Amino acid sequence: MDVYYAIIADIVGSRRLTDRHAAQAAFTDALTRAAADLVLPQSPIATVGDEFQAVAATLTDALTFTLRVQLLLPEDLSLRFGIGAGRVEMVSADADAIIQDGSAWWAAREAVEQAHAVQDAGREFCRTWMRMAQDAVVPGGAEENEAVVNALLLLRDQAVARLRPRQRRMVAALLAGATQVEVARVEKVSQQAVSDFSRGPGAALIEAQALLDAVASARRGREPLAVQQ
User: Fold this and answer.
1) In sequence order, what are the beta bridge partners of 85?
2) Which of 42, 50, 168, 226 could form a disulfide with 14 if both were Cys (CB 3.0 to 4.6 A apart)?
3) How far apart are CA 97 and CA 82, in angstroms?
4) pLDDT tens across 48-95, in order?
5) In angstroms, rounded to a whole number, what is the distance separating the alpha carbons of residues 108 and 112?
6) 110 to 84, 123, 212: CA distances (angstroms)
7) How many angstroms separate the CA atoms of 121 and 117, rounded?
8) Are residue 132 and residue 179 in the same domain, yes or no?
9) 33 lies in which domain range?
10) Do 64 and 32 sit in the same domain of this protein?
11) DSSP label at residue 15
12) Which long-range contacts (CB under 8 A, 24 or more apart) does 20-25 make?
């Protein structure tokens, strides 16, 4: 069985949004930009109930996608992510309504609910959780993989939460391939300030993503996987 990574994103504090139209546009823009060059059998789409959904072919792409979105969103907007590993099956591919089912989606629903529960328990920085379906066969087993990924996601989400808006923009730009000089010009700071940041507060996020990018580069050239019909 091919393992896919279903992603459900819901809006944090959706009832507090004062301009829902502008917020939806900002979410859509961040999700679209975050999906660039990733292997996503289903690109991000808006669904009912203040939710967005996507499907990644690999865990690496799912993790990269969710980090990019967090960094690209304006400071007053936030999404909560559930990543589910398992089956993704196409029920209907109608142009007006793509309907999918499968254990990856059930796991993603459980994951986003767990992320919400962790936040409610006092860990406000939590934005991402991963759940593996019972039929997801992976090396090491589902339970061990879940624990390892979620431990790292908690650390990553806390690191992002501690960044100021300008710092988030700088990390996003550096991860997108911008040079320190280019980032400094856009943010109207010195190149030395960007360098200090990339070796200080932003270092862990930048280096961690570099490791994921190395894994992704090893599989470049493969055709994107198609969702099972």
Assistant:
1) 5, 132
2) 50
3) 21
4) 778 999 999 999 999 999 999 999 999 899 999 999 999 988 655 555
5) 6
6) 8, 18, 25
7) 6
8) no
9) 4-141
10) yes
11) G
12) 23/77
